[in-house]
Write a structure and sequence with these properties.
Largest sheet: 6 strands, parallel
CATH superfamily: NagB/RpiA/CoA transferase-like
Strand content: 15-25%
Radius of gyration: 22 Å
Distance between the termini: 66 Å
Helix content: 10-25%
Order of helices and strands: HHEHEEHEEEEEHEEEE
Number of domains: 1
Number of strands: 12
Number of helices: 5
CATH architecture: 3-Layer(aba) Sandwich
Structural class: alpha/beta
CATH class: Alpha Beta
Strand order of the largest sheet: 1-12-7-4-2-3
Oligomer: single chain
Length: 214
């Protein structure tokens, strides 16, 4: 008996008591899933986001909105960045204190040109606390997907608390599925068959997330 025969036999046994004319849509399925695990307040939700981001090896910073320009300038300087690509809708005051050369997100920019850029600075669409995920949807302050996949260093600013949600179901309610969505949980990484972790394979090697509060 082949493996195929074994699998099909198990399926037939599982369906033995199902009426032949019954269709999947004829049987109601309870879908009362939890929208969030636990009952957290705003501060606890942001703390959970920071904890899970760090678990995924993202570097997490917190600051007030007023201190964002100085923090971003410091992070870029510590990285040694001389150039940074920025979406056209990024608030100009965010990088007003930095002396790096800012390169706009242009349609004609090639992957080779992006690979030569030191950093990219973006906003985000939403951040999920329970999974430590930031989601980009190519909005004005996030730009085209490729600018966050090619440069080796990505700084992502999350506006706290309005862009932070507890769970993936809550995040999906805020997102348009017709837009190009990028879900980021830590820096790009993969493992080979021996489980040796390699970062920066198909995205930034370093992800810094700034939680910017009021």
């Amino acid at each position: 008996m082949s493996g195929r025969d074994v699998v099909l036999g198990r399926i037939r046994a599982a369906l033995a008591d199902v009426p032949r004319g019954e269709r999947p849509e004829d049987v109601p399925v309870e879908r009362g899933y939890l929208r969030a695990h636990g009952n957290r307040g705003t501060a606890a939700t942001v703390d959970l986001l920071a904890e899970h981001l760090a678990d995924y090896r993202a570097v997490v910073h917190r600051c007030a909105r007023a201190g964002l320009p100085e923090l971003l300038a410091r992070l870029l300087a510590e990285r040694g960045s001389r150039t940074a690509v920025v979406p056209r809708g990024l608030p100009p005051e965010w990088l007003a204190a930095s002396d790096v050369r800012l390169l706009p997100d242009r349609p004609g920019t090639t992957p080779h040109e992006l690979d030569a850029v030191d950093s990219v600075v973006t906003g985000c669409a939403v951040a999920v606390a329970e999974t430590g995920t930031v989601v980009l949807d190519a909005g004005p302050d996030q730009g085209r997907r490729r600018i966050t996949l090619v440069p080796d260093h990505h700084i992502c600013v999350v506006r706290v608390p309005e862009q932070v949600v507890d769970s993936v179901p809550q995040a999906l309610e805020r997102l348009d599925p017709a837009r190009p969505l990028t879900w980021i949980s830590g820096p790009s990484a993969t493992s080979d068959i021996e489980l040796d972790r390699v970062e920066g394979v198909h995205g930034p090697r370093t992800l810094e997330v700034v939680l910017a509060g009021e």
